[in-house]
Amino acid sequence: MSFRDKVAFVAGAGGGMGLNIANDLISEGTHVVLADIKPKPAEIQNGPGKSLYLSGDLSSEDFVREVVGEIESKFGRLDYLVNTVGVLWFDRDGSLVDIETAIWDRVIEINLKAVFLTSRYAIPVMRITGGGAIVHFSSTQALRGDVAAQDAYGASKGAILSLSKSIAIQFAQHGIRSNAILPGATMSPMQQRWTGQEAEVGRGIPLGRVGTTQDQANACLFLLSDKASFITGAELVVDGGATANV
Fold first, then answer.
1. What is the DSSP string of 189-237?
2. Are 111 and 86 in contact (CB under 8 A)?
3. Is 153 a residue of the active site?
4. 7 in Cβ contact with 15 (< 8 Å)
5. Share of residues in the chain with pLDDT > 90 (%)
6. CATH number at 7-245
7. Maximum distance among all alpha carbons in the chain?
8. How do the domains of the chain map onto residue ranges?
9. Backbone angles phi and psi of 182, in degrees to 5
10. pTM over 0.85
11. CB atoms near residue 196 (< 10 Å)
C-alpha cells in the first residue's frame, strides 16, 4: 500500500484514532495536515512525510475553508480525507425526551456538520487532482438503539453512513471513493471510562478483547489505499465480532 508523497487531511487528529491514523500515514511518507480543536499533540510522527497541525473548530466553515486553503497552497493536491471528529458526552447526551436542545444541536454540529464541511471543501480539490479516497468514522451505535440512550450521538453517526454513500455515488465518476468505518468498543481518550476494565469489557466481545486505535487505523489505511480501489459506498464494521453476535 504505497502512500508516499500523497497528501492527507485528517480531521480530528488531536488524539486517539485520528492521531494514530495521521502518524501511520506520515510514517508511510504521506504529507498530512492534522486539524482539531485540541492543542497540538506532542506525539506527532517525525517523518518521513511532512506534517502541519492546525488548531480550530471543524464545525466552523471558516476554519475548514482555511485548512483546505492551506493544503492547496502548501501541497497543491489532496488525495485523502479522514473524518474522525466526534464527541460522546455521556453526562449531557441522553434520551431525546430529556436532552437539552442546545446539547443536541452541538453534538450534531461536531459529529455531522464537521463531516459535511470537510467533505464539501476537500472534494473539489480531489476532483482537480484526479480523484481520492475518503474515510468517515461512524460507530456501531448507528446500527442499534439502547436503553441507556445517547440519541444525539447515535443519530449523528447514523447520518454519516447515509452521507458517505451519497458522496460515493455522486463522485465515483471523478475517481473519488467514500467509505465508512464503524468502530466497536475501542480504547481511546473518548472511552477513558473503561480504563482498568478492559478485560471485563473484552469478555463481551467474540474476539475476547477491546479494540485499539491501531485496529481502527489499520482498517482506515486499507480503505484509503489502492488495494481498496474497487470499494466505495461501503461500511466496514471493526468491532471484534460484537454486532455479529447480537
1. GGGGGGTT-HHHHHTTSTTSS-EEHHHHHHHHHHHHSGGGTT--S-EEE
2. yes
3. yes
4. no
5. 87
6. 3.40.50.720
7. 50
8. 7-245
9. -115, 95
10. yes
11. 8
